[in-house]
Amino acid sequence: xxxxxxxxxxICGLLLSTVAASLLIPEMPLQVSGHNPVxxxxxxxxxxxxxxxxxxxxxxxxxxxxPAPIADDLQIAxxxxxxxxxxxxxxxxxxxxxxxxESQRIQWWISKLFEDRRxxxxxxxxxxxxxxxxxxxxxxxxxxxxxxxxLSDQLYDNRPYDELVQDLIAERGIWTDxxxxxxxxxxxxxxxxxxxxxxxxxxxxxxxAFLGTRxxxxxxxxxxxxxxxxxxxxxxxxxxxxxxxNSFTGITDNQKKDYNYKYLYAEEEVVVPSMVPFNxxxxxxxxxxxxxxxxxxxxxxxRPFARAIVNRIWAIxxxxxxxxxxxxxxxxxxxxxxxxxxxxxLLADDFIEHDFDVQRLIRVIAETTAxxxxxxxxxxxxxxxxxxxxxxxxxxxxxxxxxxxxIQSASLQALDTDSHIIAKLMAxxxxxxxxxxxxxxxxxEFAIQGGTIPQRLLMMNGKLVKERTSNNPLFxxxxxxxxxxxxxxxxxxxxxxxxxxRRPTTEETAYFINRLENADESVSRTDQFEDIYWSLLNCTxxxxxx
Amino acid sequence: xxxxxxxxxxxxxxxAHISRRNILKAAGLGCASWLTPLSTQLAFSAEKEQKKKRPxxxxxxxxxxxxxQFETFDPxxxxxxxxxTKAIKxxxxxxxxxxxMPQSAEIMQDLTLLRGVLSKEGDHERAAYNMxxxxxxxxxxxxxxxxxxxxxxLSATGLEIPRHVSILPGPWPGRGGFLGNGxxxxxxxxxxxxxxxxxxxxxxxxxxxxxxxxxxxENSFLARRRSDLEKNKTIxxxxxxxxxxxxxxxxxxxFDISKTPKALLDDFGDTPFGRGCLCAxxxxxxxxxxxxxxxxxxxxxxxxxxxxxxxxxxLDPAFAALIKLLxxxxxxxxxxxxCCGEFGRTPGTNPLGGRDHWPHGFSVALGGGGIRRGLxxxxxxxxxxxxxxxxxxxxNVEDIHATIHHALGIDxxxxxxxxxxxxxxxxxxxVIDKILDV
Lengths: 546, 438
Hints:
The structure holds two protein chains of two kinds. Chain A is mainly α.
């Protein structure tokens, strides 16, 4: 009898100590195999960062703006996590970051994120919005999940971006075997008679997504608003897709097909030849029509291509593009003549010189002073500071970032590909439901928006926050912190790190310790921490990037 | 009014029975019948004075994608560009609508129809911005939408639910722009579903403690950041306060259409859009200043006729029932209804049987307080020529904005100080005097 009781108590003790151990810092920092700290100290890397910094510095001086100081490492790590994985760092991640030498923390963290599948998946989702939109697309011939998985694979392998885009524009085959062709099939309609790729939609997508310009505004008439684009410019672009067909072998090219169009006020339809609207000398003769277009779009001298992805990656990382709207960048101009903001052309040049390396682009952006400035300072911060990146702009998190961060905050370990399948399934179900309610930002995800009352109601009274904060020592960090922290101060600090990626200020610590000490006795300790977690998840700091 | 009237529960508005007009008129009749004309005049004048004091509202039926004027309010049946649509007579002599709009044809006497509206924007997003704000997009600032201005300028004292509501919002619902996100529209979806998440999860004492904790965190966050962050950007605390106020308000009943008689729902078409229009009447009755209801799917670059017909089957009953109900509830004099999309559609059809974008002369229907009834201004050319600014009764988008603000009693020439330091008038258009009901 005694033996069984002792055994029972022993098992309980073992279980408790296992759970408690999960609150502790891992002993050994995780090795990141692809991380080479020396590379980021080389003049070749530092040089481009310094040039970009100098352009921003000039702007700040011209605008008479005193920049905010550099943010602390955890703040920058939070921005990177939100931008590249859609989640805040876990407490475990924070401990690992803090174990790195100070000068290497940011680039080490980026290396770790690049090795995390969440980076490729999340950035693929962001890019896919620009490439194929957010609608379900035509049944059977459009495989959105397959497409995003393929895109994620390309990003994970850091495939040169020009090659990736060439596949999107010119790939042939079946949508399941050659997922890149879903870029083409997404243009097909859902109705009868719309079972072929649409050259008009494709021309609009190519110009917006890959060239950062909106030519579709001249689809129906010449630009009569001061620009020099003609209706024919748009349809000549569309004509590159005239032979793109959906057949029993998938997407193919029928070189003999014409593109006929009746221009506004024209009496008759005409056969529209394929032609590009600018940099015409870069267009090659050989290849299929789509291959010719793909080669022209991605040509190293076709700088709108590089500018477009630089602007988009900047927006993904900071929630705000350098040029707004993200897909409306002037074709001609320079930084010197005031057409482009600081950094844009320098980043585009560096991107081209380094073989369209997306990961390098992310590393360079992350290293710039503009990315690293704080959103707070001892001097007055104004809207102009944010406008010119003299202070990091406070931007609302996208719904998937909010839900990802709520779910992450409920676990002290990183919820990554190594997480248990039950945890991943739970997260997936909650995520879909939450985003639907919170409101998906759609394709136009970089538009400046404030929070809404339904969002606040969802966060204050909704199921997700309740389920992820209420008494549940197995799944919820709030309960584990309440039950296993050695003292109140550690508990408060852990809760702050898990939700806001920072330690509490002295005043905050004092307030919360006092609050716990004088708490209503009828409210249990786990409920107290559920309440504290609720406040942390409902504050501005949690819901906004900063 | 009889109890078996299908609309009885909503028709029975106390203000309709006990209005000053009725009392004064009754007094006039009872005391001295020969004074009746004078007493009636006095009663009307008193009522007008009273109504002037009542805050006004705007209901915008936003037809996202741009409806075709040919298949709605301006058919040219039987002409080169008229397409398959036939024309039907409206209840205003000499005015015809498309046969897609039979019920709306019966309310033409309550509307002003502008058939020669001009815009300079031919792209959906830019044109939506233009139609909703009265300004063309400007990279340096975001103009407030008409709903945001109405909320900013007109009082909404005592209102515990949002003043600006967008039902079934499309991609570009009304925004506060430089007036601040606090004037953004509250987005809601099909009113047949109750508004979610209105019940707090913990007892009141714990909820109060949570709010106290939250304030500590907010003070900490705002301490060294831009001083106008909460006011002009995040409005986080403001939104939390509004959400909490709304949670305990009786006024949330205005969002609930579940008690509406089925016959009335059927009048509106019992579609999400129709239910949205019905809900709008309850919202403005409660004090909401602007409700926008979106009906998407008008962008008919292919199969124009079928697409427009399908959309008008939803629009027509809802629009007509909305005007009728507003009148029955004595709300029409205090509400301006506007029905429009981004622009019109081309006279010519493209090879896919579609009509493309046409900002060079399209229709906008207006009605309600301060707007003349039974009036059509402007015309489009049956031969498909563009309407120009020189044409008779051709008006720009900004003129419609100036007119609506003026009719609402808002000084549209008032200049706001914008964050970029440039003064900006509420509207830079000109009032269309001809459509004012003075």
